[in-house]
UniProtKB/TrEMBL annotation:
The keyword Hydrolase applies. It comes from the Bacteria. Residues 22-203 form the Helicase ATP-binding domain. It comes from Microbispora bryophytorum subsp. camponoti. Residues 238-249 have a biased composition (Acidic residues). This is DEAD/DEAH box helicase. Residues 233-252 are annotated as: Disordered. InterPro entries: ATP-dep_Helicase, DEAD/DEAH_box_helicase_dom, Helicase_ATP-bd, Helicase_C-like, P-loop_NTPase. One of its GO terms (molecular function) is helicase activity. Transmembrane segments: none annotated. Residues 255-407 form the Helicase C-terminal domain. The keyword Glycoprotein does not apply.
Length: 734
């Protein structure tokens, strides 16, 4: 290992790498390594792991180390790095995911050894299909490494990963040390407890702050305006306008103009907040290349594009001989090695502090500054503009996110979720692995010793009854749980291995080449025009049986509508927004338009009197401004509905239909003096509580409890209502 380090011409180990050597090499404790992107976290884990495996080779068959990654592309990338590292160490490195051929997997099963790189879904499939062999596969297991750990925390996929790691311990018949890697962790205690549930205090935590690089930042503001397109743009859009009655807005064109001027000629990433926005801006930028008569430098990258199109974008980014900018979603947030990019652009308010930090980490990897440009659109002021929009909430939310980023605060994981959907999956998987299991053994494995510790025995028993009623499981006379008729079909389908639901999709095909896929809910008639994979297409034919959409190149088009909502806004971001409204300091990173928009938002905040009290009359309605996170806002909405109030969230406000400011203030006082309904009772007011993959198999009572634990915050709502009542106590309304 020392020879390899010298061959790399490293003058020294980086701080995280040096700190990780002793605890990882000892192999006696779990280790959490939190360090900036491109700080060498992979080597921090595997230099000592490979050293340990070389000094003391496994004496039995089985994989010695398992590396678990959230992305197949990241596995492919890390495979090259680790294969080079282990080339002269007699430590084989192997990949296992959906794109790896069956013959390669068969060879691995015949002689499992060395380091295995795998996704949670493929590891799940291994337990289900080869449960009888797991003891042999894990017989020599010395380390489990989890990359991009932050992407798992607080999610159903994360609960699945925790369960799989525990089941690896059981298969190996010992506590296998875990090494977690992440660039974006705020609450180290919560992260350590995720890595080893129930024993986070015993995890060795390594935090490297050696990322004090220079940050060059600008937030650019744009006012939504009518289109002012060139003749070429208007010609290209004419078909789409006839079909949709829309055309590119002037502000979106202005953003595209600036992106084109600022980014052309270098390597960059443009993060858009949706797949539709990725397609829209790729199209706008591609057309600008055509207009300028220069080679196209802008390529799309999102999860609905085909593998070869995504890999083409990634290879272009790695190629330093030709400039390229990828317009992407979160697919390029994580650690796929695409080299250093000159800058990162964010179109729209960032989805969160942690996500912004992860995106920013892509820039400034070669010792230069990290460069971030953020583009924010706000509506034009008019007499009919909603008061919440006058507050310029998108801009202020962006400023709040940046300020919290500079304070090194990141969203903590959701620790109260029950993850019942994933518990259903893991119960069925456990039955498949062992050919049947008793309820007590399942409960002990998954809940008492495993990650589902918030699920008590009564809740687990109720869940088993629900699964029995849905014929997913059945119970023999000796108490053994087996798959039921429906359970057999569910487990034997390839979609079972993922803890998250994937919608049924149509393939989009042009000339025999698959461009990607669209959700089946997307309605596209023959002759429709769309933008996909950064190009404009006309739908030629739709095969509903084969689920194929045949397209050909066209001059017009619009991005398709994709399914999926935005992330929840954390309470800390909303309280930071209130502070910004009440402050007079103007951040130096705002351009002139953004400064003017901030000034307008602050002026509206004071004109509405929101610094003193949170109630505003608006026509026949009353607007309530709690300035709290989405889970608290949702809880307040449901609490008001229990009092017969018609209320809907609108941007930063809650709109109480037909209520006066005085009746709203009286209601807040009454609520502050009484007990709020239980979270489960409030959850029952939600018409459809099914969020996760197997929620439709869970009974109404457990579904309400799961929804309440995940989406509602009664203590937070109580605190917010008390504060709102105090603010309105002395107010007098006309």
């Amino acid at each position: 290992m020392q020879r390899w380090i010298w061959q790399q011409d490293w003058p020294e180990l980086r701080p995280a790498q040096e700190a990780a050597v002793a605890p990882v090499l000892a192999g006696e404790t779990d280790v959490l390594i939190a360090a900036a992107t491109a700080s060498g976290k992979t080597e921090a884990a595997f230099l000592p792991i490979c050293s340990a495996l070389t000094a003391d080779p496994p004496q039995t068959g089985g994989f010695a180390a398992i590396y678990i990654s959230p992305l197949k592309a990241l596995i492919n990338d890390q495979y090259g790095r680790l294969d080079e590292l282990c080339e002269h160490l007699d430590i084989p490195v192997a990949r296992w995911h959906g794109d790896v051929g069956a013959s390669s997997k068969s060879k691995l099963l015949e002689r499992p050894r060395g380091i295995l790189l795998i996704t949670p879904e493929s590891l799940e499939a291994m337990f289900v299909l080869r449960g009888w062999k797991m003891r042999d596969l894990a017989g020599a297991l010395r380390y489990v490494v989890i990359d991009e750990m932050h992407s798992f925390m607080g999610t159903e996929r994360g609960a699945q990963l925790q369960s799989l790691m525990h089941r690896l311990d059981l298969a190996a018949r010992r506590r296998v040390p875990r090494v977690g890697l992440s660039a974006t962790l705020g609450d180290m205690r919560a992260a350590a407890d995720f890595l080893r549930p129930g024993s986070g205090d015993k995890v060795t935590v390594i935090v490297s702050d050696a990322d004090g690089q220079e940050l060059q930042l600008q937030v650019r503001g744009y006012v939504e305006t009518q289109p002012n397109l060139s003749a070429l743009d208007r010609t290209a859009d004419v078909d789409a306008e006839q079909q949709t009655g829309e055309e590119d807005s002037g502000d979106r064109s202005a953003i595209a103009d600036h992106l084109f001027t600022a980014l052309r000629g270098s390597h960059n990433l443009i993060f858009a907040n949706s797949r539709a926005a990725v397609e829209e801006f790729t199209d706008l930028l591609t057309r600008r290349c055509d207009q300028a008569g220069v080679p196209n430098e802008f390529v799309p990258h999102h999860g609905n594009l085909s593998k070869d199109i995504r890999e083409h974008a990634e290879s272009r980014l790695k190629d330093r001989t030709r400039p390229v900018t990828a317009v992407c979603t979160s697919t390029l947030e994580m650690g796929i090695d695409i080299g250093s990019v000159s800058s990162v652009a964010q179109v729209g308010a960032p989805p969160g502090v942690a996500a912004l930090r992860q995106r920013l980490g892509r820039s400034g990897r070669r010792g230069g500054p990290a460069i971030l440009r953020v583009y924010i659109r706000e509506p034009e002021l008019s007499p009919t503009l909603h008061p919440a929009e006058e507050l310029r909430a998108q801009l202020v939310q962006t400023i709040a996110t940046i300020e919290l980023l500079l304070q090194r605060w990141y969203e903590p994981p959701h620790e109260k979720a029950l993850h019942l959907s994933t518990l259903v999956q893991q119960t069925l998987s456990l039955i498949a692995q062992h050919g049947g299991i008793t309820p007590n053994d399942a409960y002990r494995t998954l809940c008492v010793q495993g990650p589902f510790r918030l699920v008590d025995a009564a809740t687990f028993a109720a869940l088993l009854r629900d699964l029995g009623e849905a014929t997913l499981i059945r119970q023999e006379t000796d108490g053994l749980l087996l798959h039921g008729e429906v359970g057999e079909k569910v487990v034997n389908h390839y979609t079972f291995y993922a803890a998250f639901a994937a919608p049924t999709e149509y393939r989009i095909v042009s000339g025999g080449r698959t461009l990607g896929s669209l959700p089946i809910e997307q309605s596209l008639p023959e002759g429709a025009l769309l933008i996909f994979a950064g190009r404009r297409w006309r739908v030629l034919a739709i095969d509903t049986r084969a689920k194929v959409i045949e397209v050909a190149r066209a001059s017009g088009g619009r991005p398709p509508r994709f399914i999926g909502g935005g992330p929840e806004v954390h309470d800390r971001i909303r309280t930071e927004m209130r502070r910004i409204y009440q402050d007079s300091t103007v951040p130096s990173y705002l351009d002139a338009t953004a400064q003017r928009l901030l000034e307008q938002g602050r002026a509206a905040y004071h004109r509405f009197g929101l610094e003193a009290q949170p109630i505003l009359a608006y026509g026949n309605d009353t607007l309530l401004f709690p300035f709290r996170g989405d889970s608290i806002m949702t809880t307040i909405v449901l609490t008001l509905r229990t009092r017969g109030v018609a209320v809907e969230p609108q941007e930063l406000a809650l709109a109480l239909s037909g209520a006066t400011p005085q009746t709203t203030a009286d209601l807040l006082r009454e609520l502050s003096e009484s007990e709020l309904p239980a979270a489960t009772e409030l959850a029952r007011l939600i018409p459809d509580q099914r969020i996760d993959k197997y929620d439709e198999l869970i009974g109404e009572e457990l579904l309400a409890r799961a929804f309440a634990a995940r989406r509602l915050d009664v203590p937070g709502a109580r605190n917010a209502i008390n504060r709102l009542a105090e603010q309105t106590a002395l107010a007098r309304f006309a």
